[in-house]
Amino acid sequence: MDRAPGLMSLKMELFFAALILAYLQSFVLSDSQGDALFALKLSMNIPNNLLADWNQNQVNPCTWSNVICDKSNNVFSVTLKGNGITGGIPKELGNLSNLTSLDLENNRLSGEIPPALGDLKKLQFLTLSQNNLSGAIPESLAGLQNLINILLDSNNLSGQVPDPLFQIPKYNFTGNHLNCGGQNLHLCESYSSDSGDSHKSKIGITVGVVGGLAILFLFGGLLFFVYKGRLRGYKREIFVDVPGEVDRRIAFGQLKRFAWRELQLATDNFSEKNILGQGGFGKVYKGVLADNTKVAVKRLTDFESPGGDAAFQREVEMISVAVHRNLLRLIGFCTTTTERLLVYPFMQNLSVAYRLRGQRAIDFSRLEEEDDVLLLDHVKKLEREKKLDAIVDRNLNKNYDIQEVEMMIKVALLCTQASPEDRPAMSEVVRMLEGEGLAERWEEWQHVEVTRREEYSRLQRRFDLGEDSLYNQAAIELSGGR
Predict the structure, then answer these.
(1) Would you say the CATH fold of 32-179 matches that of 1-27+245-482?
(2) Which residues are annotated as part of the binding site for ATP?
């Protein structure tokens, strides 16, 4: 008679444990930004699987391609120019309240411009030129007080252009059937070549040509000296800032993407005086960020990762989740076409050797002092070793069915997979708890787990700096355990 209440209590406890573990593994639920961008994807016919990473189940749209966010994870730029995209512009884009730039130029978009774009009060750049858009220009666009550039040329737009749009510093409505305010239909744009300004134009062209030639000669001289420096044995290192980073920061959970310029300033242009050490993987520099945070910047010599920039980002994201008392936690990275940099916290007068031989720091992420695994990995380990009793609350005094315990634990682990797409839906969870389909899902998950552990082991070996020789061992060691 006492067995039934105990079993019911056990089921409830394990079920809520599964839900808690699932929420610990997941990110914040997708917000209106992700919904708006996903609506854009659904309304368009996008070739070549261009936006494959625009996944509605993936929480943060700031990790999606062609999307740029600020440091608060607000989407402020969307660029999809020149991709041959067909379809229409959805009204849901009006929900991107922090958007400052929207560029859909040189596609094959059709339909009307949605009036909801007038809700983008922070919008500064609107580029919809060279498409097949039709209808009138919405009056709501006239209320965009921050707009400084609107390009709607080469479409099939018709009707009257709202008068306030002519006050924008740069506009172009050519190649349409628009009335720019006169009695007849004619083309209009913000710049013209008046005869009174022809003399000034000639002077400007002359100055531009002379200036261009001067810059060309200076650049040629710079290349000459760089080449001579290389012939002399690389006595000086020359760092060149490259475009493409701007000040873009993308959050991978706790991982931050730094701009190249930000790290260049932090390390005083990678000055030799800031070198903490070097080895086979590159040099380590001490740096101070704009908020006075001290960091150690590892500049990798082998920047050509297989798979390019996207593969490198996936690898550093996996490394960032590695937690060990003898490892410095990776806090960020920087990647350009020619650079790969890793950013760690700066540890004054501490090294890996000290942490191995010295007193252990308090680490509340461990279950016990001697455990080197996180909670989820600890549960997985106990399940593999069939030590299920160690997972169950001792207050139950073994008043439970061990087979039901095993079933509940398996369902809970399936609900804690890293990717939201791989987790079972709640309806499937109910079926598995009733004994339907659990064996198949569990076997499939086991194969995934083996692959994940093998890949993690490979990445750990790749970034292990155990063979590095450092100039200053006492300052910092950015490597795996010796």
Answers:
(1) no
(2) 298
The string over 423-455, giving b where at least 16 C-beta atoms fall within 10 Å of a residue's C-beta and e elsewhere, is bbeeebbeebbeeeebeebeeebeeeeeeeeee
Domain 1-27+245-482: CATH superfamily is Phosphorylase Kinase; domain 1 (3.30.200.20)
- β-bridge partners, 333: 257, 342
Instruction: Beginning with the edge strand found earlier in the chain, give each strand of the sheet holding 149-151 in spatial order.
Output: 67-69, 75-79, 101-103, 125-127, 149-151, 170-172
Contact 312, 335 (CB under 8 A): yes
What token pair was written down for 207?
């100055």
Q: Which of 164, 32, 54 is nearest to 98 (CA)?
A: 32
pLDDT tens, per residue, the chain with 482 residues:
455 555 666 666 666 555 555 444 434 434 678 888 888 888 888 776 778 778 777 657 888 888 888 888 889 899 988 888 888 998 888 888 899 999 999 998 999 999 999 999 999 999 999 999 999 999 999 899 899 999 999 999 988 888 888 888 898 988 888 887 655 455 577 654 343 444 444 455 656 666 777 787 777 777 766 655 554 444 344 444 444 443 344 444 467 888 889 999 999 999 999 998 876 677 899 999 989 899 999 888 765 555 556 666 666 766 666 655 556 778 888 888 788 888 888 877 555 444 444 444 444 444 443 343 467 778 888 888 888 888 888 888 878 888 888 888 888 888 887 777 778 888 788 788 887 888 888 888 888 777 777 766 666 665 554 444 344 444 444 444 43
Q: How many angstroms from the chain centroid is the CA of residue 272? A: 31
Closest CA relative to residue 284, chosen from 469, 427, 408? 469
Q: Which residues are annotated as a binding site?
A: 298
HEC readout, 12-58 = HHHHHHHHHHHHHHCCCCCCHHHHHHHHHHHHEECHHHCCCCCCCCC
The identity of residue 347, as a single letter, is: M
Whether this prediction's pTM lies above 0.85 is answered by: no
- Topology annotation, domain 32-179: 3.80.10
DSSP H stretches of helix in 385-476: 402-414, 426-433, 438-462
Domain ranges in the chain are 1-27+245-482, 32-179
User: Is the separation of the CB atoms in 340 and 312 below 8 Å?
Assistant: yes
